[in-house]
Design a protein that fits this description.
Helix content: 25-40%
Strand order of the largest sheet: 9-6-5-4-3-2-1-10-11-12
Distance between the termini: 62 Å
Radius of gyration: 23 Å
Shape: globular
Strand content: 5-15%
Number of strands: 14
Protein backbone atom coordinates (compact mmCIF):
# COMPACT_ATOMS: atom_id res chain seq x y z
CA UNK A 1 0.00 0.00 0.00
CA UNK A 2 1.48 3.36 -1.01
CA UNK A 3 1.34 6.62 0.90
CA UNK A 4 -1.67 7.83 -1.05
CA UNK A 5 -3.69 4.76 -0.06
CA UNK A 6 -2.81 5.19 3.62
CA UNK A 7 -4.33 8.62 3.87
CA UNK A 8 -7.39 8.57 6.15
CA UNK A 9 -10.83 9.24 4.74
CA UNK A 10 -11.82 12.84 5.56
CA UNK A 11 -13.93 13.09 8.68
CA UNK A 12 -15.08 15.66 11.19
CA UNK A 13 -15.48 15.46 14.96
CA UNK A 14 -17.63 17.50 17.32
CA UNK A 15 -15.94 17.47 20.71
CA UNK A 16 -18.07 17.75 23.85
CA UNK A 17 -15.63 18.59 26.65
CA UNK A 18 -18.40 19.12 29.21
CA UNK A 19 -20.35 16.13 27.92
CA UNK A 20 -24.14 16.58 28.24
CA UNK A 21 -23.69 19.01 31.14
CA UNK A 22 -25.43 22.36 30.64
CA UNK A 23 -26.41 25.43 32.64
CA UNK A 24 -29.81 25.56 30.92
CA UNK A 25 -32.76 23.19 30.76
CA UNK A 26 -34.19 23.88 27.31
CA UNK A 27 -37.42 21.94 27.11
CA UNK A 28 -36.59 20.39 23.75
CA UNK A 29 -32.95 19.44 24.41
CA UNK A 30 -32.17 15.89 23.27
CA UNK A 31 -28.76 15.79 24.94
CA UNK A 32 -29.38 16.59 28.61
CA UNK A 33 -30.66 13.11 29.42
CA UNK A 34 -27.45 11.55 28.06
CA UNK A 35 -25.95 12.20 31.50
CA UNK A 36 -27.45 8.86 32.54
CA UNK A 37 -25.02 7.13 30.14
CA UNK A 38 -22.01 8.58 31.96
CA UNK A 39 -23.02 7.98 35.57
CA UNK A 40 -19.48 6.82 36.44
CA UNK A 41 -18.42 10.47 36.57
CA UNK A 42 -20.37 12.81 38.87
CA UNK A 43 -19.22 15.85 36.86
CA UNK A 44 -18.67 15.49 33.13
CA UNK A 45 -15.40 17.16 32.24
CA UNK A 46 -12.73 16.25 29.72
CA UNK A 47 -9.42 15.38 31.35
CA UNK A 48 -6.10 16.79 30.17
CA UNK A 49 -5.16 13.28 29.02
CA UNK A 50 -8.18 13.01 26.73
CA UNK A 51 -7.75 16.61 25.54
CA UNK A 52 -4.15 16.20 24.46
CA UNK A 53 -4.73 12.76 22.94
CA UNK A 54 -7.65 14.12 20.93
CA UNK A 55 -5.82 17.21 19.69
CA UNK A 56 -2.72 15.28 18.69
CA UNK A 57 -4.63 12.46 16.96
CA UNK A 58 -7.11 14.73 15.21
CA UNK A 59 -4.42 16.97 13.73
CA UNK A 60 -2.46 13.90 12.56
CA UNK A 61 -5.59 12.41 10.98
CA UNK A 62 -6.42 15.42 8.80
CA UNK A 63 -4.75 15.40 5.39
CA UNK A 64 -5.25 19.12 4.83
CA UNK A 65 -3.27 22.31 5.46
CA UNK A 66 -5.95 23.58 7.88
CA UNK A 67 -7.59 21.63 10.71
CA UNK A 68 -10.80 22.85 12.34
CA UNK A 69 -11.81 21.85 15.86
CA UNK A 70 -15.52 22.08 16.76
CA UNK A 71 -16.39 22.48 20.44
CA UNK A 72 -19.97 21.78 21.46
CA UNK A 73 -22.01 20.44 24.36
CA UNK A 74 -23.93 20.43 26.55
CA UNK A 75 -22.42 23.84 27.17
CA UNK A 76 -18.67 24.10 26.53
CA UNK A 77 -18.21 27.37 28.44
CA UNK A 78 -18.78 25.35 31.64
CA UNK A 79 -15.21 24.08 31.18
CA UNK A 80 -13.88 27.57 31.85
CA UNK A 81 -11.45 29.72 29.88
CA UNK A 82 -8.33 28.02 31.22
CA UNK A 83 -9.37 24.73 29.61
CA UNK A 84 -9.57 26.34 26.18
CA UNK A 85 -6.35 28.25 26.70
CA UNK A 86 -4.72 24.86 27.28
CA UNK A 87 -6.48 23.52 24.19
CA UNK A 88 -5.09 26.32 22.00
CA UNK A 89 -1.60 25.82 23.43
CA UNK A 90 -1.80 22.08 22.69
CA UNK A 91 -3.01 22.78 19.16
CA UNK A 92 0.01 25.00 18.55
CA UNK A 93 2.33 22.35 20.01
CA UNK A 94 1.00 19.57 17.77
CA UNK A 95 0.21 21.60 14.63
CA UNK A 96 3.52 20.80 12.88
CA UNK A 97 3.04 23.50 10.28
CA UNK A 98 -0.72 23.11 9.81
CA UNK A 99 -3.11 25.99 10.40
CA UNK A 100 -5.57 25.34 13.21
CA UNK A 101 -9.02 26.93 13.48
CA UNK A 102 -11.72 26.59 16.12
CA UNK A 103 -15.52 26.82 16.14
CA UNK A 104 -17.53 27.03 19.33
CA UNK A 105 -21.27 26.47 19.86
CA UNK A 106 -22.68 28.17 22.95
CA UNK A 107 -25.95 29.27 24.51
CA UNK A 108 -24.21 32.57 25.27
CA UNK A 109 -25.21 32.76 28.93
CA UNK A 110 -21.64 32.83 30.26
CA UNK A 111 -20.13 34.84 27.41
CA UNK A 112 -18.61 38.00 28.84
CA UNK A 113 -15.80 40.34 27.83
CA UNK A 114 -13.13 37.82 28.85
CA UNK A 115 -14.64 35.07 26.71
CA UNK A 116 -15.22 37.44 23.80
CA UNK A 117 -11.64 38.73 23.97
CA UNK A 118 -10.38 35.14 23.88
CA UNK A 119 -12.56 34.32 20.86
CA UNK A 120 -11.36 37.45 19.07
CA UNK A 121 -7.69 36.83 19.87
CA UNK A 122 -7.75 33.31 18.47
CA UNK A 123 -10.18 33.86 15.58
CA UNK A 124 -12.79 31.48 16.99
CA UNK A 125 -16.01 31.20 14.96
CA UNK A 126 -18.87 31.23 17.47
CA UNK A 127 -22.31 29.71 16.97
CA UNK A 128 -24.83 31.44 19.24
CA UNK A 129 -28.07 29.63 20.05
CA UNK A 130 -31.09 31.93 19.88
CA UNK A 131 -34.60 31.05 18.72
CA UNK A 132 -35.94 34.45 17.72
CA UNK A 133 -37.41 37.44 19.57
CA UNK A 134 -37.93 37.30 23.32
CA UNK A 135 -41.37 35.69 23.56
CA UNK A 136 -40.50 32.98 21.03
CA UNK A 137 -37.02 32.32 22.43
CA UNK A 138 -38.21 32.13 26.03
CA UNK A 139 -41.03 29.75 25.16
CA UNK A 140 -38.62 26.79 25.24
CA UNK A 141 -35.08 28.01 26.02
CA UNK A 142 -35.25 28.24 29.81
CA UNK A 143 -32.83 27.85 32.68
CA UNK A 144 -33.08 25.22 35.40
CA UNK A 145 -35.48 27.42 37.33
CA UNK A 146 -37.84 27.66 34.35
CA UNK A 147 -36.96 31.29 33.62
CA UNK A 148 -36.44 32.69 30.16
CA UNK A 149 -32.89 33.29 28.94
CA UNK A 150 -33.35 35.81 26.12
CA UNK A 151 -31.94 38.85 27.91
CA UNK A 152 -28.81 36.95 28.98
CA UNK A 153 -28.24 35.62 25.47
CA UNK A 154 -28.53 39.13 24.05
CA UNK A 155 -25.92 40.35 26.56
CA UNK A 156 -23.61 37.61 25.32
CA UNK A 157 -24.28 38.64 21.72
CA UNK A 158 -23.45 42.25 22.59
CA UNK A 159 -20.09 41.11 24.00
CA UNK A 160 -19.31 39.23 20.78
CA UNK A 161 -20.14 42.28 18.68
CA UNK A 162 -18.17 44.63 20.91
CA UNK A 163 -15.03 42.55 20.46
CA UNK A 164 -15.54 41.95 16.73
CA UNK A 165 -16.00 38.19 17.12
CA UNK A 166 -17.18 36.37 14.01
CA UNK A 167 -20.40 34.56 14.88
CA UNK A 168 -23.48 32.99 13.40
CA UNK A 169 -26.86 32.25 14.95
CA UNK A 170 -28.33 28.79 15.37
CA UNK A 171 -32.09 28.69 15.83
CA UNK A 172 -34.08 25.62 16.74
CA UNK A 173 -37.45 25.47 14.99
CA UNK A 174 -40.03 23.94 17.30
CA UNK A 175 -43.77 23.89 17.91
CA UNK A 176 -43.73 27.29 19.63
CA UNK A 177 -41.87 29.43 17.06
CA UNK A 178 -42.48 27.62 13.74
CA UNK A 179 -45.63 29.59 12.94
CA UNK A 180 -43.65 32.86 12.90
CA UNK A 181 -41.08 32.53 10.10
CA UNK A 182 -40.86 36.17 9.08
CA UNK A 183 -40.83 37.40 12.67
CA UNK A 184 -37.95 35.03 13.54
CA UNK A 185 -36.02 35.79 10.36
CA UNK A 186 -36.41 39.57 10.57
CA UNK A 187 -35.29 39.58 14.20
CA UNK A 188 -32.18 37.53 13.43
CA UNK A 189 -31.42 39.64 10.36
CA UNK A 190 -31.64 42.82 12.44
CA UNK A 191 -29.78 41.66 15.54
CA UNK A 192 -27.53 38.79 14.41
CA UNK A 193 -24.47 38.60 12.24
CA UNK A 194 -26.08 37.89 8.89
CA UNK A 195 -25.26 34.15 9.03
CA UNK A 196 -28.20 31.96 10.06
CA UNK A 197 -28.78 28.27 10.72
CA UNK A 198 -32.17 26.67 11.34
CA UNK A 199 -32.45 23.27 13.01
CA UNK A 200 -35.79 21.41 13.18
CA UNK A 201 -36.64 19.94 16.57
CA UNK A 202 -37.94 16.39 16.11
CA UNK A 203 -37.88 13.91 18.99
CA UNK A 204 -39.84 10.83 19.99
CA UNK A 205 -40.43 9.78 23.58
CA UNK A 206 -40.91 6.20 24.73
CA UNK A 207 -44.33 5.31 26.08
CA UNK A 208 -42.80 3.69 29.15
CA UNK A 209 -39.53 3.47 31.10
CA UNK A 210 -36.44 2.12 29.35
CA UNK A 211 -33.70 -0.06 30.77
CA UNK A 212 -31.00 2.50 29.92
CA UNK A 213 -32.83 5.31 31.71
CA UNK A 214 -33.34 7.34 28.52
CA UNK A 215 -36.71 8.72 27.42
CA UNK A 216 -36.02 9.71 23.82
CA UNK A 217 -35.67 6.88 21.32
CA UNK A 218 -33.63 6.09 18.24
CA UNK A 219 -35.50 6.13 14.91
CA UNK A 220 -35.04 2.38 14.53
CA UNK A 221 -36.04 1.62 18.12
CA UNK A 222 -38.87 -0.90 18.22
CA UNK A 223 -40.35 0.52 21.43
CA UNK A 224 -43.71 2.22 21.36
CA UNK A 225 -43.03 5.95 21.08
CA UNK A 226 -44.72 9.20 20.12
CA UNK A 227 -43.48 12.52 18.75
CA UNK A 228 -43.00 14.95 21.61
CA UNK A 229 -45.36 17.93 22.06
CA UNK A 230 -42.54 20.39 21.41
CA UNK A 231 -41.45 18.85 18.09
CA UNK A 232 -42.17 20.87 14.98
CA UNK A 233 -44.96 19.53 12.77
CA UNK A 234 -44.05 18.77 9.14
CA UNK A 235 -46.66 21.23 7.84
CA UNK A 236 -45.32 23.89 10.20
CA UNK A 237 -41.73 23.35 9.17
CA UNK A 238 -42.60 23.50 5.48
CA UNK A 239 -44.39 26.81 5.97
CA UNK A 240 -41.53 28.11 8.10
CA UNK A 241 -38.87 27.35 5.49
CA UNK A 242 -40.87 28.76 2.58
CA UNK A 243 -41.80 31.83 4.61
CA UNK A 244 -38.17 32.59 5.45
CA UNK A 245 -37.07 31.87 1.88
CA UNK A 246 -39.65 34.23 0.37
CA UNK A 247 -38.49 37.05 2.61
CA UNK A 248 -34.82 36.33 1.87
CA UNK A 249 -35.02 35.82 -1.89
CA UNK A 250 -36.84 39.11 -2.42
CA UNK A 251 -34.71 41.27 -0.16
CA UNK A 252 -31.49 39.82 1.20
CA UNK A 253 -29.60 37.61 -1.27
CA UNK A 254 -25.91 38.42 -0.96
CA UNK A 255 -26.46 40.30 2.30
CA UNK A 256 -27.86 37.63 4.62
CA UNK A 257 -26.68 34.03 4.42
CA UNK A 258 -28.91 31.11 5.43
CA UNK A 259 -27.11 27.78 5.61
CA UNK A 260 -30.02 25.78 4.19
CA UNK A 261 -30.33 28.08 1.18
CA UNK A 262 -26.60 27.92 0.47
CA UNK A 263 -26.67 24.12 0.63
CA UNK A 264 -29.73 24.01 -1.61
CA UNK A 265 -27.96 26.13 -4.22
CA UNK A 266 -25.11 23.59 -4.17
CA UNK A 267 -27.62 20.90 -5.14
CA UNK A 268 -29.05 23.00 -7.98
CA UNK A 269 -25.49 23.58 -9.16
CA UNK A 270 -25.02 19.81 -9.40
CA UNK A 271 -22.66 19.68 -6.42
CA UNK A 272 -22.78 17.24 -3.53
CA UNK A 273 -24.45 18.99 -0.59
CA UNK A 274 -21.92 20.00 2.07
CA UNK A 275 -24.42 19.42 4.89
CA UNK A 276 -24.51 15.80 6.05
CA UNK A 277 -28.28 15.46 6.39
CA UNK A 278 -28.74 16.04 2.64
CA UNK A 279 -25.85 13.91 1.42
CA UNK A 280 -26.40 10.48 -0.12
CA UNK A 281 -24.46 8.87 2.71
CA UNK A 282 -23.31 10.15 6.09
CA UNK A 283 -20.95 9.02 8.82
CA UNK A 284 -18.26 11.66 8.31
CA UNK A 285 -19.30 13.73 11.34
CA UNK A 286 -18.77 12.02 14.68
CA UNK A 287 -19.10 13.06 18.31
CA UNK A 288 -16.36 12.81 20.93
CA UNK A 289 -17.59 12.64 24.51
CA UNK A 290 -15.71 14.08 27.47
CA UNK A 291 -14.33 10.66 28.49
CA UNK A 292 -12.75 9.93 25.10
CA UNK A 293 -15.56 7.78 23.69
CA UNK A 294 -16.25 8.34 19.99
CA UNK A 295 -19.80 7.94 18.66
CA UNK A 296 -21.14 7.67 15.12
CA UNK A 297 -22.99 11.01 15.35
CA UNK A 298 -24.02 13.41 18.10
CA UNK A 299 -27.64 12.39 17.42
CA UNK A 300 -26.64 8.77 17.99
CA UNK A 301 -24.92 8.86 21.36
CA UNK A 302 -26.28 5.47 22.36
CA UNK A 303 -24.36 2.39 23.52
CA UNK A 304 -25.04 0.71 20.16
CA UNK A 305 -23.27 3.54 18.33
CA UNK A 306 -20.17 3.77 20.49
CA UNK A 307 -17.19 3.19 18.21
CA UNK A 308 -14.62 2.96 21.02
CA UNK A 309 -12.27 5.11 23.07
CA UNK A 310 -9.53 7.23 21.49
CA UNK A 311 -7.40 6.37 24.54
CA UNK A 312 -7.46 2.71 23.45
CA UNK A 313 -7.84 2.82 19.64
CA UNK A 314 -6.54 5.49 17.23
CA UNK A 315 -9.22 7.90 16.11
CA UNK A 316 -8.48 7.13 12.46
CA UNK A 317 -9.19 3.44 13.06
CA UNK A 318 -12.48 4.22 14.79
CA UNK A 319 -13.57 6.67 12.07
CA UNK A 320 -12.64 4.16 9.36
CA UNK A 321 -14.17 1.14 11.09
CA UNK A 322 -16.61 -1.23 9.43
CA UNK A 323 -19.20 -0.22 12.02
CA UNK A 324 -18.99 3.42 10.98
CA UNK A 325 -18.96 2.57 7.28
CA UNK A 326 -22.18 0.60 7.67
CA UNK A 327 -23.72 3.42 9.69
CA UNK A 328 -23.01 5.93 6.92
CA UNK A 329 -24.10 3.74 4.00
CA UNK A 330 -27.36 2.76 5.70
CA UNK A 331 -28.62 6.27 4.95
CA UNK A 332 -28.58 5.43 1.24
CA UNK A 333 -29.32 1.73 1.39
CA UNK A 334 -32.41 2.03 3.60
CA UNK A 335 -34.21 4.57 1.41
CA UNK A 336 -37.79 3.52 0.66
CA UNK A 337 -38.94 3.31 -2.94
CA UNK A 338 -40.86 6.58 -2.86
CA UNK A 339 -37.65 8.40 -1.95
CA UNK A 340 -35.66 6.76 -4.75
CA UNK A 341 -38.32 7.90 -7.22
CA UNK A 342 -38.76 11.38 -5.74
CA UNK A 343 -37.86 14.36 -7.99
CA UNK A 344 -36.27 16.26 -5.10
CA UNK A 345 -34.04 13.40 -3.93
CA UNK A 346 -31.03 15.21 -5.46
CA UNK A 347 -31.52 17.98 -2.88
CA UNK A 348 -32.94 16.02 0.05
CA UNK A 349 -30.86 12.82 0.05
CA UNK A 350 -33.51 11.19 2.23
CA UNK A 351 -32.77 13.71 5.02
CA UNK A 352 -31.28 12.88 8.41
CA UNK A 353 -31.54 9.22 9.51
CA UNK A 354 -32.54 10.48 12.96
CA UNK A 355 -35.87 11.64 11.50
CA UNK A 356 -36.57 8.61 9.29
CA UNK A 357 -39.05 6.80 11.50
CA UNK A 358 -42.17 7.31 9.35
CA UNK A 359 -43.55 4.86 6.80
CA UNK A 360 -43.90 5.52 3.09
CA UNK A 361 -47.27 5.42 1.25
CA UNK A 362 -46.33 1.83 0.31
CA UNK A 363 -45.83 0.89 3.96
CA UNK A 364 -42.02 0.82 3.80
CA UNK A 365 -40.09 2.03 6.84
CA UNK A 366 -37.38 4.70 6.65
CA UNK A 367 -39.31 7.76 5.43
CA UNK A 368 -38.38 11.08 7.01
CA UNK A 369 -40.96 12.49 9.38
CA UNK A 370 -40.23 15.85 7.68
CA UNK A 371 -40.72 14.52 4.13
CA UNK A 372 -43.75 16.71 3.44
CA UNK A 373 -41.90 19.78 4.70
CA UNK A 374 -38.89 19.27 2.45
CA UNK A 375 -41.01 18.39 -0.58
CA UNK A 376 -42.91 21.63 -0.13
CA UNK A 377 -39.73 23.63 0.37
CA UNK A 378 -37.65 22.20 -2.47
CA UNK A 379 -40.52 22.48 -4.96
CA UNK A 380 -41.17 26.03 -3.82
CA UNK A 381 -37.59 27.21 -4.38
CA UNK A 382 -37.05 25.44 -7.71
CA UNK A 383 -37.52 28.50 -9.96
CA UNK A 384 -35.33 30.93 -7.99
CA UNK A 385 -32.68 28.25 -7.44
CA UNK A 386 -32.51 27.51 -11.17
CA UNK A 387 -32.16 31.20 -11.84
CA UNK A 388 -29.37 31.69 -9.28
CA UNK A 389 -27.53 28.59 -10.47
CA UNK A 390 -27.67 29.92 -14.01
CA UNK A 391 -26.33 33.29 -12.89
CA UNK A 392 -23.41 31.62 -11.14
CA UNK A 393 -22.58 29.49 -14.17
CA UNK A 394 -22.36 32.67 -16.24
CA UNK A 395 -20.32 34.50 -13.60
CA UNK A 396 -23.11 36.85 -12.64
CA UNK A 397 -24.16 37.55 -9.06
CA UNK A 398 -26.99 35.34 -7.80
CA UNK A 399 -28.35 38.45 -6.07
CA UNK A 400 -29.84 39.30 -9.49
CA UNK A 401 -32.65 36.98 -8.44
CA UNK A 402 -34.14 39.78 -6.33
CA UNK A 403 -34.84 41.88 -9.41
CA UNK A 404 -36.07 38.79 -11.25
CA UNK A 405 -38.45 37.95 -8.42
CA UNK A 406 -39.85 41.46 -8.65
CA UNK A 407 -40.81 41.14 -12.31
CA UNK A 408 -44.33 40.04 -13.21
CA UNK A 409 -42.89 37.59 -15.76
CA UNK A 410 -40.12 35.44 -14.29
CA UNK A 411 -38.81 34.47 -17.74
CA UNK A 412 -37.18 37.89 -18.21
CA UNK A 413 -33.70 38.67 -16.97
CA UNK A 414 -33.16 41.54 -14.53
CA UNK A 415 -32.38 44.71 -16.40
CA UNK A 416 -34.38 43.75 -19.50
CA UNK A 417 -35.18 40.94 -21.92
CA UNK A 418 -32.11 38.87 -22.88
CA UNK A 419 -30.90 38.49 -26.46
CA UNK A 420 -32.05 35.42 -28.36
CA UNK A 421 -28.89 33.35 -27.94
CA UNK A 422 -28.32 34.31 -24.30
CA UNK A 423 -28.84 31.48 -21.82
CA UNK A 424 -32.43 31.44 -20.64
CA UNK A 425 -32.76 32.93 -17.14
CA UNK A 426 -35.04 30.07 -16.06
CA UNK A 427 -31.97 27.85 -15.79
CA UNK A 428 -32.94 25.32 -18.46
CA UNK A 429 -29.56 25.63 -20.18
CA UNK A 430 -31.26 26.41 -23.51
CA UNK A 431 -30.90 29.68 -25.46
CA UNK A 432 -33.57 32.19 -24.46
CA UNK A 433 -35.10 32.18 -27.97
CA UNK A 434 -35.68 28.42 -27.76
CA UNK A 435 -37.09 28.44 -24.25
CA UNK A 436 -39.03 31.09 -22.38
CA UNK A 437 -39.20 33.44 -25.40
CA UNK A 438 -41.53 30.90 -27.06
CA UNK A 439 -43.91 31.10 -24.10
CA UNK A 440 -44.60 34.83 -24.53
Amino acid sequence: MDAQEKRPHPFHVMAKPAGPRCNLACQYCFYLEKETLFSESPVAAMSDEVLESYIRQYIESQDAPEVTFAWQGGEPTLMGLDFFRRAVALQQRHAHGKRVANSFQTNGILVDDDWAAFFAEHGVLVGLSIDGPKELHDARRTDKGGHGTFDRVMRGMACLKRHGVEFNTLSCVHRANADHPKEVYRFLREHGSGYLQFIPVVERAAAGPRADGLTLVRPDDGLEAAVTPWSVLPTQYGRFLTGVFDEWVRNDVGRTFVQLFDVSLEAWMGMAPSLCLFRETCGEAMALEHNGDLYSCDHYVYPENRLGSILETPITALAGSEQQRQFGEAKRDALPRCCRECPVLFACGGECPKHRFAKSPHGEPGLSYLCAAYKKFFRHIDGPMKFMANELRHRRPPANVMAWMGRPEKGSAPGGTPWGNDPCPCGSGKPYKRCCARKK
